Amino acid sequence: MRSTFKVLFYLKCNAPKKDGLIPVMCRITINGKIAQFSCKLDVEEKSWNVELGRVSGRSIAAQEANRMLDKIRVGINQAYQKIADRDNYVTAEKVRNAYLGLGMNHETLLAVFRQHNEDYGKQVGKLKSPRSYWKYCTMYKHLSEFVEKRYKVSDIAFKELTPAFITDFELFLRVEKNHCNNTVWSYMMPFRKIIYMAVNNGLLQRDPFFAYSITKEETKRGFLTQEEITLLINGTFKKKSYELIRDLFIFCTFTGLSWTDMANLTKANLRTSFDGHLWIDTNCQKTGVETNIRLLDVARHIIEKYDGMAERDKLLPVPCYANCKNGIKAIAKKCGIEKNVTWH
């Protein structure tokens, strides 16, 4: 009912700007449930009338600010009435989203990101790698959590994205997710691609990544010693999945293949040379360079161990990258290896 509908403008006093001005927020309340958003307006705290939810005084700045607030109120009322006439029920979030343009032609960040990932997933194993797909899915998960925690909504309109949104999300990855600089960099790159796609498709007028910069830091990679590799090989595990992941890691160690190139191997990549030795002929997915690898006994035994267990014509039964990535860390720890063991 109309009596449950209320619009309130208030100051977000806990987040003052560097110039001392305070952001004005709008709160929509329907049946005790609230939805809120930034009015994209900053005012002096001393000029704000809390009871009226307006700027006091007759200055030009005050009049312009109040006209903006009146325009927002009218727009929200129109959105409320339109939803009330069309649907059986009205919620605060539906009114907020309608006013901001959410839910219209996929012009929302997470909806577009979700559609991108669905399309990307269909190309995995053909044009795209499982590892890249996993990165996009993880990025979507982090972004969805950030929007929910920071803005209390399930999605956000493209027109709501600002440079501050980008830097706030970077801070979320560093602080809330405790990611190092290079991990943050690896997530911001696919995010930037989604934004570029939105700009090119006319969903965004201005690029919020404009002037944003993050640089990948050069890191000195460690390595496993012969003794540590032996610990992995001799390790015993209750979980069969750990045994599989360990074997796949050892296979990569003795062939020099990356996780992606290993996962892409099929039986057609095997070749027996004139001298009777077994070789792998493949192309590196990242560089396209042809690679010919003579299999040592350790790698050959692993292929024989899992012969016939992979799906379709794959050479090895490789789990998804996330399971392999997390599994090898747990395995190394169980084997007494303190180093940060990762796939490449």
What does this protein look like?
Keywords: DNA recombination, DNA-binding. Residues 108-213 form the Phage integrase SAM-like domain. Residues 9-95 form the Arm DNA-binding domain. This is Phage integrase SAM-like domain-containing protein. By secondary structure, this protein is α+β, with helices and mostly antiparallel strands. The protein has three domains: 2-100, no CATH class; 109-200; 226-334, Orthogonal Bundle (hpI Integrase, Chain A), CATH 1.10.443.10. Helices cover 46% and strands 13% of the residues. The chain has eleven helices and eight strands. It has helices spanning 60-86, 92-100, 109-121, 130-151, 163-175, 181-200, 226-234, 240-255, 259-264, 297-305, 321-334, and strands at residues 5-11, 22-30, 33-43, 48-49, 54-55, 270-272, 278-283, 290-294. A three-stranded antiparallel sheet has the order 1-2-3, covered by helices on one side. A three-stranded antiparallel sheet has the order 6-7-8, with no helix packed on it. It has a two-stranded antiparallel sheet with strand order 4-5. Strand 6 (270-272) and strand 7 form a beta hairpin. Helix 4 (130-151) crosses helix 6 (181-200). The longest helix has 27 residues, at 60-86. The N and C termini lie far apart (59 Å). The mean pLDDT is 88.
